[in-house]
Amino acid sequence: MNLQLLRAYIAYCRKAKHRKGHGVHSPFMYELVRSVFFAKKERSEPENRCERIRTRLNVFCEKKSLQLVQVKEKNDLIFYTENCIALLAQPHENAELWEFLQENKGTKVTADCWKFGLAISATHLQKQAYVVKL
Question: Per the count of CB atoms within 10 A, which of 42, 67, 92, 121 is most buried?
Fold first, then answer.
């Protein structure tokens, strides 16, 4: 782990406080945190936590009529539109892309979960940034 990434991890640990939905006032984000990040593992779900969250996120998006876009580079943002959730793996290693996503005018809510980041574009949400401790 390089020094810059170590500093980012320490900053993440200091800011991360929305464990299991505590302190999340948006009903939409509370439901996302509780049903995607912290729901009990079912037998049919993958063992790998990131894969399990990705599977749950697909179900959540279908339920809420949202489109899930996996972002690996700026070209992938062509598909990032209204009523969309952008999923970025390793946002602190892709800091420039993560910052671009956070500052995008369509992005209303961001959730930094260290191993991945979510940028949500939905008209009914207010601008907010969450740092969720997994």
Answer: 121
